[in-house]
Amino acid sequence: MAKRILVVEDSPITRSLIISSLEDLGDFTAVEASNGFQALRKLPEYLPDLVITDINMPDINGLEVVRFVKENENFKHIPVIIVTTEGRDVDRERGLKLGADRYLIKPFDPEDLQRHVRDLLG
Amino acid sequence: MDQSLSDFVSEAEDILDSLEDSISQLMDISTDDHRKPDIINAIFRSAHSLKGLSGMLNLDNLSDLSHHVESLLDSVRLNKIALDDDIVDLLSYGVQLINRMVHAVAEGAGDSSVSVDEFLRELEKLGSEEVSGSAPDLSEFVDVPEGLTEVLSEYEEHRFRDNIEREVPLYRVICHLPFDTFDVRLRDLSEGIREVGELLTTLPQTDGVAEGTIGFQLYFTAREDGERLRDRLQSDGVSLEQVLYRQRRPQTMADSFALEASEGPEGERGYFEDEIKGVSNTVRVDIAKLDNLMNLVGELVILRSNFTSIAGRLREILFDVGSDSLLELEKTSVQMEKMLIDLRDGVMDIRMVPMGQLFSRLQRVSKKIARELNKKVNFEFSGGDTELDKMIMEEMVSPLLHMVRNSIDHGIENSEERKAKGKRETGMVRLSAYQQGNHVVLEVEDDGAGIDLEGVRRSAIRRGVLREGEELSEEDILSLLFKPGFSTKETVTGISGRGVGMDVVRKEIENIGGAVEVHSVKDRGTRVTLTLPITLAILQALLVRTGSRVFAIPMGSILETIQLESGDIRTMQGIEVVNLRDRTLPLLRLENIFELPRADDGNETYAVIIGMGNRIMGLVAQELLGKQDIVIKPLGEAFAKSVGLAGAAELGDQSTVLVLDVAGLMLEAIRLGGLGKRV
Q: How far is B154 from chain A (nearest CA, A)?
């Protein structure tokens, strides 16, 4: 069955760039969320195999998305990749401490993203 | 253009739009506005998004520039750099450059065609100090769970600390919402919170929630009373609690002064003590507390007037007996009234701030607007020491700004045009304030092109507001400017097109019981005059009876009262009028406006002459019941939209009267039938 990847990112272009760089991986379905609220809504609905999230978003930030995934019995097995802009060290450290599995700095190299995704999806 | 680039340009333009919006909001608000951190953060986020976005498309120059603007904003939002005029200027400049780069990309010129050297030089001059070391966990200062800090972004944590340092009351909203509608409900809730305070974070809850629901905790700070917040925000599944401060507080500036003072050598102590004393000479008070105090004073004034009527009744009973105690009661009552008036004036005085405060804010923004529009303008201010209620002054910020923008953008001509008209090359915009009885008059005047009456007329015809060939007086044409959505410019310029229109200006001014008038002469200039009440808190009103109803009319709008003999009221062109000295004034009957049964026309009728701006009319009343200080309370929901009513007031005998909104009333009268035009 196709793997499902939830991409949480408020910039439509960055979102589509993330998704297009995953295309080489073959069979997968991207579920898009443009803010934290949508992410919370789509998590139980689609039960994704992987979450890729930005940190700096309105309403609910990406760290809270990470915590929501990692502290919830139903979701904590889902790996999370943080994709964030350089320079926000404190935020990145907190993300990893909350249980995020990887982080990538924007602008990222599509091959790096592919490698992390392949690792995490096994 | 390549598809991804054109997608980029449209997304970048969206971001730039909201960026520019936020910057103009930032210029409009006062420095201590609770929305300020949110606005700065919104600007930061926009720059951040642009940086990420352009980086993904290898637009390195744009990405670098956005990065610089972003870091500048980061320093501002984390309080590492104070946001002063220079920083705002630099910020606007940076955004301008971003804008140019995006356009260069759109036109295929690439982002390297725009030079950013000057911007970088300015930026370098600033420098920024790094805040180092880790601060104690938030839970040491306020009653929050220990791990809270760990899920906050660096910025959110900073907002917590900043608020805690200023000891702003902290609240937590806990809500359990149905999964189907949580995002809508949560957004409503967040908006409700942002109206009264600063939303610090929204945390989704991971356990202890029923199937089909989702839980959130929202932390926010607000300087409003907990009970009132509860009324506002609590609803099904949403509860609010105050988060208590612990004893230990982060060290504030004053603390460190105190510390150094006690540790320093003897000679320095005096100096530090003076520093601290200097700080404590003024107290910042939430205006809501003053409102509350004012209400109490108002109610005391009303209670006091009971003494007079009780004493009056006692005197009737004890008339023959005569009584020292009664005399004493009356004396005490009079003394009490004097002291209450002193108290009222004292409280009122606290609310008063000089207009100069607003002028200096306006001057800064005006200069910037002139610069952006490339117009030479001198700004003149007079009457900066005229005092106005703080609340009213805050309400006036955006209307005044709008009018100043209009003056610069539409009024003042460019240099060539001015020279051709034989005017001085540099235009003039003057703001003046002066007191006139119970009102403060604010004028915004320019020596520009004046309002194009013919243009207004044509535009009104095009919009169907006016019929072709319909004749209108100059004054009526000018009043068209206040119709919703009205603009004479075919294409609205970037600057005046934003923000509020003149219809909103009028509404805002009428909401606080004021009036607005425009006077304009072609090629000579335009003058907009605002007539505002000095304060909203308490006012003297005349109580009048029409039919069986009693109304209160604010004294500030009453010019005089006249007694009417039979035959004084005449009818001219279907309108009832009365002569007052050499003028003929239209008469207004409240029962017509409020659709009440027609009052009995006895001989003993009065006309209360009311005036707002240059309109004057008479209100027919059967009886004048005397003056009284009243505290206006808002009407309930059902009457909220009633035209001509400012609110209700409770009188000493527990009865309630309706308070007339004179400006609204006069407009309604005009709407109902040509009343109130100058005759």
A: 6
User: Does ipTM come in above 0.90?
Assistant: no
The domain of A25 spans 3-86+97-108
CA distances (Å), origin B9, targets A33, B46, B92, B94: 22, 14, 20, 18
Count the domains in chain B.
5
Q: Cα angle vertex B356, ends B350, B358, to 5°?
A: 90
Residue numbers of the domain that contains B328:
287-352
> What CATH number is attached to the domain comprising A38?
3.40.50.2300
On whether residue A78 sits in a domain, the answer given is yes
Tokens of A16: 């589509």
Helix (H) or strand (E) holding B77: helix B60-77
pLDDT at B438: 67
Among B352, B381, B406, residue at a domain's last position: B352
Instruction: Tell me whether residue A116 is in a domain.
Output: no
Q: Does B508 touch chain A (CB under 8 A)?
A: no
Helix axes B324-351, B287-317, angle to 10 degrees: 160
Query: Same domain, yes or no, for B394 and B504?
Result: yes
- pLDDT one-digit tens code per residue, B188-215: 888 889 888 899 999 888 666 677 788 8
Domain count, chain A: 1
Residues from chain B that touch A37, judged by Cβ atoms under 8 A, are 182-183, 186-187
End-to-end CA distance of chain A: 14
Contacts of A60 in chain B (CB under 8 A): 202, 204
Contact: B8, A11; criterion CB under 8 Å? no
Beta bridge partners of B445: B430, B527
CA–CA gap between residue A68 and residue B496 (Å, rounded) = 45
Q: What's residue B443's pLDDT?
A: 93
Distant-in-sequence, close-in-space partners of B188: CB < 8 Å, separation ≥ 6? none
Given B45, B154, B206, which is nearest A90 (Cβ)?
A: B154
Asked, for residue B462, whether it belongs to a domain, the answer is yes
pLDDT tens column, B369-382: 888 788 889 888 88
Interface check for B53 against chain A (CB to CB < 8 A): the answer is: yes
